[in-house]
């Protein structure tokens, strides 16, 4: 199945998932590391008072993923908000463990700057199925403005796409390599043409576009300063957008932070949308907790006024 079909299978919410009490989600994203070497202006990570220093405890990871497999989860994304290449040994161990317990599809999204050939080889040789690079800016100047780090990382991330494909092909690894880009405004796609033609299209198996999300309702003065207007909620990928309510994140994909918080929001950096603590309860107990059931009910009614989702830009 192509990556876009996999995305659509989650964001379009199958009919049998439009309920308050659900079977296990097919896919779960787990934040191995809450740390990132980028400080993107629109990322929910910038809302944290300070960047966390503690990556996920591996014993917690093993316990909750085994529970997920037992419940029927088939796909694990080894990222959520942080950059998982910040802790390569943990990432490698997590991939190896997921394949050991029978996860069919292990996937990863990266900003690309730390995904050099040595690190990519390490994750591919233990069974990573999909590696996606997030490429969002057309030049070093905008990179510094939006991403918030030195422009030298702009070309490093781009070069790493070519190197990753070389590592994959030369070692006959079975890992797909993808890329996605954010459409900041109606002119952005045109601005990205040259960089995509030179550094992305010749190498990746597929590339797709995402709208600019205001992550978890964090519409900030920074957005107005840069002149961008985020889309209404998380409506999936451009080319197959969906209505913001009910939000697919509440129904079809699990999201676990490095501290063990099971959250209802795909951009929850601080626990605002926590439905359970997986240090204390099993995964399926958390997935169908009363908090989750109540939240799903109002999403199905398409009226989230008075809830933790009320302030999301999707519902203003």
- In which order are the strands of the major sheet placed? 6-5-4-3-2-1-7-8-9
Spell out the helices and strands N to C.
Answer: HEHEHEHEHHEHHEHEEEHH
Given helix and strand content, the structural type is: alpha/beta
Average pLDDT for all residues: 90
**Strand residues, percent:** 5-15%
Question: How many strand segments?
Answer: 9
Which value, in Å, is the CA radius of gyration? 19 Å
Shape: globular
Question: Stretches where pLDDT falls below 50 for ≥5 residues?
Answer: 215-219
Number of helices: 11
In helices, the fraction of residues equals: 25-40%
Distance between the termini: 36 Å
User: Biggest β-sheet: count, sense, barrel?
Assistant: 9 strands, mixed
Report a brief summary of the structure.
The chain is an alpha/beta fold and 316 residues long. The protein is built from eleven helices and nine strands. The chain has helices spanning 3-11, 58-71, 88-100, 117-125, 140-147, 152-171, 188-191, 193-199, 221-226, 283-287, 290-300, and strands at residues 27-30, 75-77, 105-110, 130-134, 176-183, 206-211, 253-256, 261-263, 274-277.
Task: Spell out the blueprint of helices and strands.
Layout: H1 3-11, E1 27-30, H2 58-71, E2 75-77, H3 88-100, E3 105-110, H4 117-125, E4 130-134, H5 140-147, H6 152-171, E5 176-183, H7 188-191, H8 193-199, E6 206-211, H9 221-226, E7 253-256, E8 261-263, E9 274-277, H10 283-287, H11 290-300
Parallel strand pairs: 1-2, 1-7, 2-3, 3-4, 4-5, 5-6
Antiparallel strand pairs: 7-8, 8-9
Helix pairs in contact: 2-3, 4-6
């Amino acid at each position: 199945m192509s990556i876009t079909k996999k995305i659509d299978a989650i964001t379009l919410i199958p009919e049998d998932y439009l309920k308050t009490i659900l079977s296990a989600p097919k896919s779960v994203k787990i934040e191995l590391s809450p740390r990132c070497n980028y400080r993107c202006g629109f990322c929910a990570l910038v809302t944290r008072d300070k960047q966390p220093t503690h990556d996920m405890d591996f014993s917690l990871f093993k316990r909750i993923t085994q529970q997920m497999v037992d419940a029927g989860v088939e796909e694990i994304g080894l990222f959520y908000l942080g950059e998982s290449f910040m802790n390569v040994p943990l990432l490698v161990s997590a991939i190896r463990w997921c394949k050991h317990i029978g996860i069919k599809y292990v996937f990863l999204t990266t900003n690309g700057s730390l995904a050099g050939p040595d690190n990519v080889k390490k994750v591919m040789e233990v069974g990573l199925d999909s590696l996606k690079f997030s490429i969002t800016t057309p030049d070093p100047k905008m990179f510094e403005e939006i991403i918030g780090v030195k422009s030298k990382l702009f070309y490093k991330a781009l070069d790493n796409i070519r190197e990753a494909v070389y590592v994959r092909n030369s070692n006959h690894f079975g890992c797909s390599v993808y890329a996605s880009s954010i459409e900041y405004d109606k002119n952005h796609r045109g601005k990205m043409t040259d960089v995509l033609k030179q550094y992305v299209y010749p190498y990746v198996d597929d590339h797709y576009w995402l709208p600019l999300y205001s992550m978890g309702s964090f519409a900030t003065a920074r957005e107005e300063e840069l002149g961008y207007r985020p889309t209404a909620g998380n409506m999936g990928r451009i080319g197959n957008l969906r209505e913001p309510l009910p939000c697919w994140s509440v129904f079809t994909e699990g999201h676990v932070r490095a501290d063990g918080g099971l959250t209802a929001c795909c951009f929850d950096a601080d626990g605002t949308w926590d439905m359970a603590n997986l240090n204390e309860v099993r995964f399926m107990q958390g997935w169908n907790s009363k908090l989750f059931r109540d939240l799903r009910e109002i999403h199905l009614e398409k009226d989230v006024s008075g809830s933790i989702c009320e302030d999301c830009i999707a519902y203003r």
